[in-house]
Every structure is written in structure tokens, then in C-alpha cells.
Write a structure and sequence with these properties.
Layout: H1 2-33, H2 36-56, H3 60-69, H4 74-102, H5 109-134, H6 138-161, H7 167-193, H8 203-237, H9 240-255, H10 258-274, H11 283-315, H12 325-332, H13 334-350, H14 354-379, H15 381-402, H16 411-432, H17 436-453, H18 461-468
Helix pairs in contact: 1-6, 2-5, 2-8, 2-9, 3-4, 3-5, 4-5, 5-6, 5-7, 6-7, 8-9, 8-14, 9-12, 10-13, 11-12, 11-13, 11-16, 11-17, 11-18, 12-15, 13-15, 14-15, 16-17
């Protein structure tokens, strides 16, 4: 049992690392190889298609995992899911294809259509991945998940070395990678599971599956819209060039939360045990964890902002550094809020407060959308960043108000102190120094001194951390 758990964990971590590295390679090559207009059009098409196909899942993907994990036969479940992706996927793409004649004036519509064809292949392959998760076949999931990214990253590296990165070649690479993921993934899935891939229409059971997924459907819509609404609105309301600039800053911001991605899966089972049967948790441990998270989150704010312009302009030959300096600063202010909302969300999830969590997502989406509509036309990319910050701020306030473990709300002070130290360190280092290395060193030292003086780092923390571990 332990060996199986270790193998599954290793396989899952490996595929996450491979996909993150491959995704970073793809993003970097496209950002420096394409002009801003083409890069922005590609990102707009990807944002639209990923959001739409995620919504088309209706939340069934997570229900499938739960049903198979609970013992229901994968053969029946995968047949229903295949019916769903074929019906919804083909219906949507038919409408998208018809739109080519309805919206002939949209110059990037052909790009959306072509990228959509590739993402349709990925959508068709989702039943295999979700079935693999439900069966706890994480090695199989790793094989299924990395095919497209490895093909795309490898091919783009070759094209970059040949100085052949252009919009047409990039689209061909994306579609080819997605088609190969479906074809190779189907073969690997069949060989590994020996399950028959039968598409059999069963109206009664399909409707039952849809009804079961309805509560999750609302969450899927909200998270999909929240994840990419700003990208889509910038691409439509402003220009592909502005989207190229914003998407680059957003991607770096997204990667900066990797430490949270590493610890978040560990918190759910731990918090669940702590709050099991309404027991009294060790509040000192939870307060220490929250404070340490705030220190790490704010330190990330310092590192990104003191390094941003010189490093990014050097890597992208002046394309995305200085032009994004204010945008990335605003986005990085979200990082401590993201850590705090994840901390409070995990407590609520462990206690089964799902309705409250749903409300929190609705509030964040509403604030973000309204702010984007008002601010993006005025302040452009900085307006989108402010809207994103406002959404997370509203969600954090709601979680703090609704949190029934009031003793933990003192973490708000750590958030304010650490974020304040980070901002002062960044501004102070840039005001005092000109040399890049002095700015970076000064910013880090100022921050560390600040959190020590403000008693966010204490001598007793090592003992508390040892007990926690």
C-alpha cells in the first residue's frame, strides 16, 4: 500500500514538473519569437477555448472521478462521459465554425477556429484522464497528460533553433500536439486498462449524471470566468498587443504561486483531521502556519519586483519588462491574498461549508468583472490588474467575516505587516540604489530586517515548526 502510494505520488509530481517546465518553454519561445500582435492573438484564442471547454464539462469530470473511486464500474462511466464530450464538443465546434460567416470582420477568427480544433481533441481525451484519476492510475495519468506539451515544447525548440517561429508554424504545432495527445493517449489508455471504449447512449443514466453534476457546474462556470475574463476582455476591448503584454506578466505572476501549489494538497487532509467531529484544533500551529505563509508570499512580492525590469527586458530583448512594471507590481500584491484565501478556504472545506465557499467565488467573480469593465478601458492592463486585486480582496474579506474560528483572523495583521514590509523594501531599494545587484540585495535585506523587527519571524518559530511537522 505504501509503495503504491509513493509510486502514485511520484508519478503525479513528475507529470506536474514536466508540464510546468514544458509550458514555460512554450510560453517563452512564443513571447520572444512572435510579434506582440500574433502572441496576443494566440493567447486570446487559448483563453477563449480553455474557458469554454472547461465550462462544457458541466463539472462532470470531477463527478466521474468520485464515482469511479467509490467503486462504480469504469466501463459504464466512461461510456457516459464519452457521449457527453462528443455531443457538447461537436455541437460547440459546429457553432464556432458557423460563426466564421457570421463574424467575417474579426481578423483573428481563423486563429480561434484553428486553436479550437486542437482544443477539441484535448476535450475528447478528458474522459481517459479522469478515469485514470478515479482508478488511481497516476502513472497512466502522467503518460496521458504530458504528450501534448512535450511534443509542442520539443518542436518549438527545433523551430526556434532554425529561426522558423511564425504564427502559421505555431498553430500547426499546437494542433499537432493536441491531435497526438488524443491518438496516442487513446492507445495507451486501451493498452493499460483493457477497458472497451464503447459510446453507448443511455438517456436515463446520462440525465442522472447531469443532475448530479449541477451543483459543481456553477463552480466551474465561475472559476473558468474568473481565470480568464481579464484576458478575453483585454483582447476584445483593447488590442492583441495589450493582451500580449498582460498575459506575459500574468504568466510570471501565476508561476510565482508555485510554493502554494506545493503545500496546498497537503493542507486539506491535515485540516480535515484537525477539524474532524468539530474538535478543537491546535490554534497555535495554525497561526504559525498562516504567519509563515504570509512571510513567504510577501517575500515573493519583493523578489519579483526588484528583479523584474532588468531580468525580463534582458530575457525578452526589451519587449515585456519595463512596459509591465506597474502591472506586475499590482498583480503581485494579490499573492499574499491568494495564500490567505487558500488557508481560509481549506478550513471551510474541511468543515464542509461548501455553500459559503461558492458564495465567496461568486463575490470574487462579480467584483472582478465589474472592476474590469470599468477600469480596463481607462487604465488598460493596470486596470485589469487592479480588478483582479479587487476580486481577491473582496473574497478575503468575506472569508474573514464568515470564518467561525475567529482566533485565526489575527492572520490579517501578518498579511498587512508583511505586505507593507515588502512594498517599503521594493520602493526603498529602488530609491537608494541604481545598480541591479544592489537593488536586489537591498530589497531582500530590507524585507528580512523589517519582518524581524515587526516580530513576524521569532526565535520560537523553529520549535513550533518542528512540532507541526
Amino acid at each position: 500500500m505504501k509503495r503504491s502510494l509513493l509510486n502514485n505520488l511520484s508519478a503525479n509530481i513528475l507529470q506536474l514538473i514536466i508540464n510546468q517546465l514544458a509550458g514555460l518553454v512554450i510560453f517563452y519561445i512564443l513571447s520572444i519569437g512572435l510579434d506582440k500582435n500574433s502572441f496576443g492573438q494566440i493567447n486570446l484564442a487559448l483563453a477563449l477555448m480553455l474557458a469554454i471547454f472547461n465550462i462544457l464539462s458541466f463539472g462532470i469530470d470531477q463527478i466521474v472521478v468520485r464515482k469511479i473511486a467509490s467503486g462504480e464500474h469504469p466501463k459504464i462511466i466512461i461510456s457516459l462521459y464519452l457521449c457527453h464530450v462528443l455531443i457538447t464538443g461537436l455541437a460547440f465546434y459546429g457553432l464556432l465554425f458557423a460563426g466564421r460567416w457570421l463574424f467575417p470582420s474579426i481578423d483573428y477568427y481563423n486563429i480561434v477556429l484553428l486553436i479550437g480544433a486542437g482544443k477539441l481533441m484535448i476535450y475528447f481525451s478528458t474522459p481517459f484522464k479522469q478515469t485514470a484519476i478515479g482508478m488511481e492510475r497516476f502513472k497512466l495519468l502522467a503518460y496521458l497528460s504530458v504528450i501534448s506539451n512535450i511534443v509542442r515544447a520539443g518542436t518549438l525548440i527545433v523551430l526556434a533553433l532554425m529561426h522558423s517561429i511564425n504564427l502559421s508554424n505555431v498553430i500547426i504545432v499546437f494542433i499537432s500536439g493536441d491531435v497526438l495527445e488524443l491518438v496516442i493517449g487513446t492507445w495507451i489508455f486501451r493498452q493499460s486498462t483493457r477497458l472497451p471504449l464503447i459510446v453507448k447512449w443511455d438517456k436515463f443514466h446520462y440525465i442522472a449524471l447531469l443532475k448530479e453534476s449541477l451543483p459543481q457546474f456553477g463552480v466551474v462556470i465561475i472559476t473558468s470566468a474568473l481565470a480568464r475574463f481579464d484576458w478575453i476582455f483585454i483582447g476584445i476591448a483593447l488590442s492583441a498587443v495589450k493582451l500580449a503584454e498582460y498575459s506575459f506578466a500574468y504568466k510570471v505572476f501565476e508561476l510565482s504561486t508555485m510554493p502554494l501549489l506545493a503545500i496546498a494538497p497537503l493542507l486539506i487532509p491535515w485540516f480535515t483531521r484537525l477539524f474532524k467531529d468539530n474538535g478543537e484544533p491546535d490554534l497555535d500551529q495554525l497561526k504559525l502556519l498562516a504567519r509563515l505563509e504570509m512571510i513567504v508570499a510577501a517575500f515573493t512580492v519583493v523578489l519579483i519586483n526588484v528583479c523584474w525590469s532588468p531580468v525580463i527586458d534582458r530575457l525578452t530583448t526589451g519587449k515585456y519588462g519595463l512596459v509591465n512594471e506597474r502591472t506586475i507590481f499590482i498583480l503581485t500584491l494579490c499573492i499574499p491574498l491568494i495564500y490567505l484565501t487558500n488557508f481560509l478556504w481549506t478550513i471551510s472545506f474541511a468543515k464542509g461549508r461548501l455553500k459559503m465557499i461558492f458564495t465567496a467565488f461568486v463575490i470574487a467573480l462579480a467584483v472582478n468583472v465589474v472592476a474590469d469593465i470599468i477600469l480596463i478601458p481607462i487604465y488598460k492592463n493596470e486596470g485589469a490588474a487592479i480588478g483582479y486585486l479587487a476580486g481577491y480582496l473582496a473574497q478575503t474579506i468575506y472569508f474573514l467575516i464568515k470564518n467561525d474560528v475567529k482566533e485565526l483572523n489575527t492572520v490579517l495583521y501578518s498579511l498587512l505587516i508583511c505586505t507593507g514590509c515588502a512594498c517599503l523594501s521594493v520602493f526603498g531599494a529602488k530609491a537608494l540604489f541604481v545598480n541591479v545587484w544592489l537593488i536586489v540585495t537591498g530589497g531582500v535585506l530590507f524585507y528580512l530586517v523589517g519582518v524581524v523587527v515587526a516580530r513576524q519571524i521569532r526565535l520560537t518559530d523553529s520549535e513550533g515548526l518542528r512540532r507541526m511537522v
